[in-house]
Fold this protein.
Amino acid sequence: MKVLLCEDIQKLGWLGDIVEVNTGYARNYLLPQGLAKVATEGNVRALAKEKAKRSEQRLRERRRIEKAVEAVNGAEAVLAARANEQGVLFGSITEALIAANLRTQGFEVADEIVKLPEHIKQLGTHNVTLRFADDLTATVRVVVVAEQVEEQPGDQKQEKQEQEA
């Protein structure tokens, strides 16, 4: 069934595109949700202005993303985490922690942009990919350092004495 998209739908098309979809998908999801209309001449003409406006918006958004990619590419995020003597972390460094660190440095990075094959569980330097769009990626260095635990002399003795009392 040919439908005219009324909204941008990821992996299907942009507003104003005429796409071929399964009849059930169109009748049960796209049409009731208002995401598409049946592709008729009247509907195509009605969406022509909106399509031009959206195209311009997408172009502006693309430029903004390209600037963000250029700014963050090659940046470095230093994160401290608790680790044992062998350098294995007690927890792990996640996408959200990396994104939060980059945001504190002034970069425009959402959590879902950071792509890790698996969470970082070792101390050291790791290269991490940021995927802003299918063809726009940046690479940042993530340096994981051991968190300094401040132990004051005599703390263990005081704890034992308190437990015995």
Q: What stands out?
A: The two ends are 80 Å apart (CA to CA). The domain at 2-58 is CATH 3.40.5.10 (Ribosomal Protein L9; domain 1). Residues 48-72 form the longest helix (25 residues). The beta strands are 2-5, 18-20, 36-38, 76-81, 88-93, 114-115, 120-122, 124-133, 136-146.
